[in-house]
Amino acid sequence: MASARRVTELKVNGASRALDADPEATLLGVLRDQLDLTGSKYGCGEGKCGACTVLIDGQAAHSCRIKVGTLAGRSITTIEGLAGPSGGLHTLQQAFLDLEAFQCAYCTPGMIMAAAGLLREKPEPAESEIVEAMQGNVCRCGTYTRIVAAIRRAAGMTKEAAR
Ligand code: FES
Ligand code: FES
């Protein structure tokens, strides 16, 4: 029965969210159009710009290339879910603000989510590892130097907080 194959639930930002989506629909489309989570941006729709980056089970992924039918039991985190339970900014968000690591900011949610995936795996990355990890994210405004600096600062803040 076709309706039985619809996707009716996704775990997003720590909560189970009800929806009704074709399994072939992209995660990005469902997040934005059905769940009102518009922080993840549509840039290319082809996995080439990173504007749509989210975390899936803690790993950065391009949500424009992921079908919701593949996500049963997976945990999705979007930029809206990155802040702590108290609502405070994540260290990456604060670092991007402090260092003004954006101009138009269209790429920023994806940059922050890609960086969050990196810091989760590697809390103290070398600069070359940051550059390598951010290869899938494009900033048309060219703020790469400040983006790398912000990620480095966030890594330092994380380290200080852990002491
Ligand atoms: S919109 Fe997903 S990578 Fe560009
Ligand atoms: S700040 Fe404009 S695309 Fe990155």
From TrEMBL:
What keyword terms does UniProt attach to this protein?
Answer: 2Fe-2S, Iron, Iron-sulfur, Metal-binding, Oxidoreductase
The family database entries (SUPFAM superfamilies) matched by this protein are listed as:
2Fe-2S ferredoxin-like, CO dehydrogenase ISP C-domain like
Gene3D superfamilies from the entry? 3.10.20.30, [2Fe-2S]-binding domain (1.10.150.120)
Q: Which residues form the 2Fe-2S ferredoxin-type domain?
A: 6-82
Q: What is its EC number?
A: 1.17.2.1
| Presence of keyword Iron-sulfur | yes
Example of a GO MF term: 2 iron, 2 sulfur cluster binding
One Pfam family this sequence matches? Fer2_2
Q: Does the keyword Lipoprotein apply?
A: no
The enzyme's first-digit EC class, named in words, is: oxidoreductase
Protein name as catalogued: Nicotinate dehydrogenase subunit A
Which species?
A: Aquisphaera giovannonii
Tell me what gene encodes this.
Answer: nicA
